[in-house]
Design goal:
Number of helices: 17
CATH class of the largest domain: Alpha Beta
Oligomer: single chain
Radius of gyration: 22 Å
Number of domains: 2
Number of strands: 12
Structural class: alpha/beta
Largest sheet: 7 strands, mixed
Bound molecules: pyridoxal-5'-phosphate
Strand content: 5-15%
Distance between the termini: 67 Å
Length: 429
């Protein structure tokens, strides 16, 4: 008899954790410790040689943080995962084993503003670079890939405009070029989409958002599918050749489908130090227990609010991809069949000025640079998160000056609508 795999809701509560072996504690304890006592000198040597898996020092691994990483790996259907200090740290950690000076990535133009910034400027300090192309056009992606390209990068549900990435089509381009596809799944969460099932190699998260769900933590996760053949050619020497940073260990194929994960711990976390703290991991574990319920409500509320906005004469375009008017409606049915998230933009007739007045008059909505909170959030991207971009890049990124972005929370939807209604009245008076 083949056992049915555990369902998502069950994994969200149980995966990665067992009752504490020392005390029987049912909930994952917060192991607030820096170091771990070795049994003896031989045990210590084996741990440092990766011959035995265990805890050495919390910059590398910690039981609370590992429980979180393993839970998200289970939810995403990956082979392994690492947790790190922020979503942005996760992006660097995902690229780190793949890249060298002179290498590049091909990234979507529709990304979180901070990611466009990180990829346009900051990664250049490492000698890496990014080329931005329209990921709605697989031919454009193909054309941008060159001999130095080491990854494709996109978001499942693109921030801020809610465009949906055609992950299977993008994964085909990545496969042909034999480079990994990295998908930022922050805005969908594994409840709405599991990018690995659509061909992604690595999935990154800002755990700051839906995974934690209540705006208490800054954290990030990298999940490895375990499916990429790092040794097929010489493109990924950190994984396929003797690694000088770890006394010549060849991570792949020695460590098989855990090569990327072990490299990220043994070298990435060890030397870059973008480690998640156990307290943060605890909050995120608590958040994940209710992820499925929250995402259902987020999507339900988003649908009602988006439909209400769309029929309102004060409003121009509403970009929620669950609306039939969205160019991504059909793709959304395929990629996010349980609902295309709760993050979208709408334009206000009256432009920039009306947007600013709307933001200044909301009461229930919080004006913050965040998303994926239980609370409804609003921001004017052009004057905040996407302010560093040129006006042309703002429009391309879905953050035009007459557009506000909302992250619809799980409050009573009548209160969400009432708040938008009164603020729109003042904004367009
Ligand atoms: C917030 C966010 C990030 C960055 O995550 P931090 O935890 O703030 O570092 C990356 N991608 C997306 C889609 C995000 O929403």
């Amino acid at each position: 008899m083949t056992e049915r795999p555990l369902g998502f809701e069950t994994l969200a509560i149980h995966a990665g954790a067992e009752p504490d072996p020392a005390t029987g504690a049912r909930q994952v304890p917060i192991y607030q410790t820096t170091a771990y006592v070795f049994r003896d000198a031989d045990h210590a040597a084996k741990l440092f040689n990766l011959q035995e898996v265990g805890y050495i020092y919390s910059r590398l691994t910690n039981p609370t943080v590992s429980a979180l990483a393993n839970r998200v790996a289970a939810l995403e259907g990956g082979a392994g995962a690492i947790a790190c200090s922020s979503g942005h740290a996760a992006q660097i950690m995902a690229l780190f084993p793949l890249m060298q000076p002179g290498r590049n990535i091909v990234a979507s133009t529709k990304l979180y503003g901070g990611t466009i910034q990180q990829f346009s400027n900051t990664i250049r300090k490492f000698g890496w670079s990014a080329k931005f192309v329209d990921f709605d056009d697989p031919k454009a992606i193909e054309a941008a890939i060159d001999a130095d390209t080491r990854a494709l990068f996109c978001e499942t549900i693109c921030n801020p405009g809610g465009a949906i990435s055609d992950l299977p089509a993008i994964a085909r381009v990545a496969n042909q070029a034999h480079i990994p596809l990295i998908v930022d799944n922050t805005t969908a969460s594994p409840y709405l989409c599991r990018p690995i099932e659509h061909g992604a190699t690595l999935v990154v998260h800002s755990a700051t958002k839906y995974l934690t769900g209540n705006g208490t933590v800054t954290g990030g996760i990298v999940v490895d599918s375990g499916k990429f053949d790092w040794s097929k050619d010489d493109k990924f020497p950190s994984l396929s050749q003797p690694e000088p940073a770890y006394h010549g260990l060849v991570f792949h194929p020695t460590l098989g489908n855990m090569a990327f994960t072990f490299h990220s711990i043994a070298i990435g976390l060890r030397d870059l130090g973008m480690t998640m703290n156990p307290q943060g991991a605890h909050y995120t574990l608590m958040g994940i227990e209710t992820l499925a319920l929250r995402m259902q409500r987020h999507v339900e509320n988003a649908k009602i609010v988006a439909e209400w906005l769309e029929q309102d004469p004060r409003i121009g375009t509403v970009t929620w991809p669950g609306l039939k008017s969205s160019p991504y409606y059909h793709l959304a049915q395929k990629i996010t069949p349980k609902g295309p998230g709760a993050l979208f933009t709408f334009s206000v007739k009256g432009g920039y000025e009306a947007c600013v007045r709307l933001i200044d008059n909301v009461k229930l909505f919080s004006h913050v640079a965040n998303l994926g909170d239980t609370r409804s959030l609003i921001i004017h991207s052009a004057s905040t998160t996407h302010r560093q971009l040129t006006p042309e890049a703002q429009v391309k990124a879905g953050a035009a000056p007459d557009v506000v972005r909302v992250s619809i929370g799980i409050e009573d939807v009548r209160d969400i609508i009432a708040d938008l209604d009164q603020a729109l009245a003042k904004a367009t008076a």
